[in-house]
Amino acid sequence: MSLPFVKHTDLGTVDYKEAWDYQGVLFNEIIQQKISEKDVEHKSNPLNHLITCQHPHVFTIGKSGNESNLLANEKDLDAMEATFYKINRGGDITYHGPGQLVVYPIFDLDQFFTDIHKYMRFLEESVILTLLDFGITGTRMEGLTGVWIADEIPRKICAFGVKSSRWVTMHGIGFNVNTDLSYFDSIVPCGITGKEVTSMKQEIGTTLDLQEVQSRLLYHLKTLFGYVETE
After folding, report:
1. DSSP 8-class letter at 211
2. What pLDDT, on a 0 to 100 scale, did the predictor assign at position 133?
3. Is the domain covering 5-230 a CATH 3.30.1700.10 domain?
4. Is the Cβ–Cβ distance between 37 and 43 less than 8 Å?
5. What integer pLDDT is reported at residue 1 of this predicted model?
6. Please, how many CA atoms are within 13 Å of residue 121, restricted to the half-sphere of its CB?
7. Which helix (DSSP H) or strand (DSSP E) does residue 175 occupy?
């Protein structure tokens, strides 16, 4: 079996809805190709995509989320220059904003492995390995998706939320690098109480080069998933 091909696109700072729509186009293209070749003897593997970006201040809530976990009203959102979207991923509410590294894999898991649990663990592992590169120990918590800093009060440093259909994925990783954590005061992050949120900047005490962090994360994703990067 040949290695999957993945095209990386860095969108820079992009409006959340614009990135969401772009994901949707790629996601649907892969699904339609798979449907059209369903009964073809020699199938061609669709090109996989990996999008990296940052977003202006935005709160998003998954299809199973509770809107009461958004603690800000419309006036508060306007004052914060933040938007709010109900979206089609799993998970509850989270925040995206400047200084946070956002990664959207649009992967056809038929080319990798058909196991969503394993997919999520690989995403988490890529972040844990990236943190280690910068001297930070990240971990998983029993029953909770994400990457955490273990302490008396655990601190979440990276959130995950995905959608999949016909083994094609979208949405993905929200990794707090230099994130302004005050925005998390306006939500109950991921609907989980009694825990805190952190960032690499908060843990290390200095601003990081986000491109350097991104480069390490992409390296670990490529190593774990075993793909070939293509133009």
Report:
1. H
2. 98
3. no
4. yes
5. 62
6. 7
7. strand 168-176
Whether 158 sits among the annotated catalytic residues: the reply is: no
Q: What is the pLDDT of residue 151?
A: 82
What does the alpha-carbon distance between residue 197 and residue 155 come to, in Å, rounded to a whole number? 5
What tokens does 169 get? 């994925």
Q: How many residues does the chain have?
A: 231
Fill in the amino acid letter for 66: N
Strand arrangement of the beta sheet that strand 83-86 belongs to: 83-86, 58-61, 93-96
Catalytic member of 173, 190, 197, 217 = 190
Task: Flag residues of the chain having pLDDT under 70.
Answer: 1, 41, 190-193
Q: Summarize pLDDT for 154-194 with one digit per residue, the tens.
A: 899 999 999 999 999 999 999 999 999 999 999 887 666 67
Break the chain into its structural domains and give their ranges.
5-230
- Is pTM beyond 0.85? Reply is yes
Q: Residue 39: helix, strand or coil by DSSP?
A: coil
Task: Compute the radius of gyration of the chain from its Cα atoms.
Answer: 17
Cα distance between residue 212 and residue 138, in whole Å: 18
